[in-house]
What does this fold into?
Amino acid sequence: MYGKKGRELVQEFAESEPGQLAAFNTDLVTQVLEECNSHFLHLNSLVRKMNAKTPAESSSANRPTQNDAISNNESPDDSEPPEADRSTNTEPPKDDNYHGLLIHHQSLTRNKRCLMAYVYNRAEVVRRLGWTLERVLPEEIEEKLSTSEKEYFKNHAATIQSYMSALDLDLGVDMVPPKDPYIKVRVLDDIGNVVLSDQLANLARHAILFIRRTDAEQYISQGLMEELTS
Amino acid sequence: MVREQSIESFYTRLRDSALASASTSPLLVFPSTSDVDSLCALKIIGHVLESDSVRYACYPVSSFKEINKYTGDNLGPAADEPITILLINWGCQRDLKKVLEIGPLARVFVVDSHRPIHLHNLSDHNDRVIVLYTRDDEQQADLAYDFDVSALANASDLNSDDEFEDESDSEDENDSESEEEDGGEMRKKRRVSAENETDPVKLFGKLKREYYYMGTFHGKPSGCLMYELAHFLRKNTNALLWLACVALTDQFVHERLTDERYQAGVMELEQHINSSGNLDSITSVTLKDGTKVTAPNSSRIAYEYEPRLMLLQEWNLFDSMLCSSYIATKMKTWSDNGIKKMQLLLARMGFARDECKQKFQYMSIEIKRSMKDMFEQYLPEFGLTDFYYRGFLLLHGYSSKVSAADVVYGVTALLESFVESDGSCASRQFGEAYDALSLTKLDKLETGMRQAIKVQRAILRQGSAAITKKGSIRSGSKFRWVKLEDSADVKLLCHPQALTKFGYFLMDALREKGARMKPLICVCYTQERSKVLIVAICGKPRLGAVQGNAFGLAFRSSAEETGAEFFHELFESSWIVLDAVAVNSFMIRLTEKLL
It folds into this structure.
């Protein structure tokens, strides 16, 4: 059935946990692309046949092919106007070729939408990773990405880094705005005497501290402190 | 200045001092790991400090010198920056300026329920130490002074070396003992003679001796004092009120206050409970179709008559009756006869045995409903007349219901369940206990309650063994003493509060046997086996008693005389850790001293 593979691709993404990535399904993507190519070949041959049958109406029959070429690069919505065009301007050539052409064309654009949705949604997840992870991807995630996704992540992370260094601010912490500038934490390891923003504090193991959030952040992200909530 | 009589001005001074030194160091808080009261007080004062954005760092400590580990040189005379520290539930019994070597730039604030307070800490000339000691607390103490403590404190010379420890040579000791024997009569005479005394130095010496030789006792729970502060500052919440209830119950469970003072405390807290909207809080909601459902997520505090049964919510009725000190000692549940008696009681009340052995939560609702009436009807036949006491409950959500006494048992067990060989320590357990006290972490509290059950079973096993085995409790003229040797239970009982509970169990059992009441000294091997923990218990405080627990001084001097290594830095002077080989000579010396 036409378009089935494309649907499977989208389904695969939709069924995975939100924010999680499954391995990039190269096989299925290749199969969908092959299907697209075969649609395109069919389409071309059908157009040629129709042109041969009604050379008089070549001007209107040519239009769909041009539009196909465009819609391969742009949005699939572009296929609407020519149909409307045809129904008003000329008498619709309602032979087998015409219906075949329509089916192939619709299947092609649908496959394209599915492919785009798959790649785009994965890219969104990859972008989010750029905020939550350090610059290096953990291996278990990296092996799930395609080459271009890896490249995308690298560039995106680099962009974030350069933005943050320009601002001189770590934007990765506190994605949810804190209620209080202070925080109550428990020290989980012997850190020793440390200069916090303006105070000298002994961060001994098991101590409970009420300090500035900014002072605690680095230790919390290193796993040396835990936040205490009442 | 030393004595701060109002909680509000104490806090204002604490906050101002903390903010003044905030540019170099946070306020350092040192809570005692020895009791639940200190934990409650810490949580309440922590809440108040947080709402004032005062940064603090809190290090739990279990003995006097441990504080130096955290402060380093910042506290001493060489320090060049101001520093503010707050001690919770320890410290006021010793001359802090001397013991902790406090320099001129340091300020030490003390909230402590231990009494007596060292006079040097109270003296107006000692501005490095500020002790919270309210007028009410002085007047309502279990042991009353018949002189003005402040005046006495101000008369004392700060640089004098005449600490009460140094005074305890045998001459003074005998003097005070004779005073004890003759009781009030003698005291009156002494006072008359003291008033006639023209030499102020002698008068001062006499009063001072009277002050210190009264022995140790406890004042108002620190948790309740801190709640008063939160209340005054309009920062009180229901959660803090619950902590105050737990703090008061802690003193009650560990027999640190008289019944009269407990009643007064309960009444005060009940008023707070009533005025904090616990009565009319929404407990049921009517749905559109008219069905009534209990509202979830509403937590409220209730006060009710509670049975003296331990950890009922986490246990079953049968075992709780079998092991709780109150019933166990009266019915002697360790003997076959005792168990029969208890089963007879259950049968007469009409409680099926299977139901009683069911986890309490799942016990039939009829039994739960009729329990109080039945117990009140049948228990007097067995001589148990005050089985119910006024206690506090926290109701949370649909089914969670926990009594303040069970929280105290559970949290105390957590505080005292560290095993040095697995690397856990008192400050780690303090963190566990800190979590267990918050309403959202009930699973930790359950762990503690299960531990408390183990401890109580060990108390029953060891207590009944000591009672039934001839010669295990040795009796002197002034006190009895008992030594625990069994290695499995020793692990559970070698902590001061657990050993104290064991002692009270024995005293209750001895009273039932008709023995004359004498103080009891319990000796128990610590985890290292080379040392023993010794705890002295003087019986439940009574109103109008002349003496508290006066073993502290005798302990110290006896231990010094044995020449063995000892550790007398725990927060109760009636607790001491001693070299195991020296126990016998220690006991001989102690007997001689108290003759």
About this structure: The longest strand of chain A covers residues 182-187. Chain A has a mean pLDDT of 80.
